[in-house]
Design brief:
The chain is an all-alpha fold. The chain has one domain. It is built from 4 helices and no strands.
């Protein structure tokens, strides 16, 4: 579980890279999602926007 200390940024990146949802990381750190995103949005891994764009462009299941 990520801790809110000096290692938090590196741990945050590791949990994101491992595929943990941001909402779960925020909850584990005792943050609301809103507070977490304000503090850690700059650590979203490269390629996240591309992943969402590909998903949004994919055919929708009926």
């Amino acid at each position: 579980m990520p801790k809110d200390n000096g290692e938090t940024k590196l741990e945050h990146l590791a949990f994101l890279a491992a595929g943990f949802p941001v909402s779960n990381i925020a909850a584990a750190m005792g943050h609301t999602l809103e507070v977490h995103l304000e503090s850690y949005a700059r650590f979203i891994p490269d390629g996240t926007a591309d992943l969402y764009a590909k998903r949004n462009d994919a055919p929708k299941a009926a």
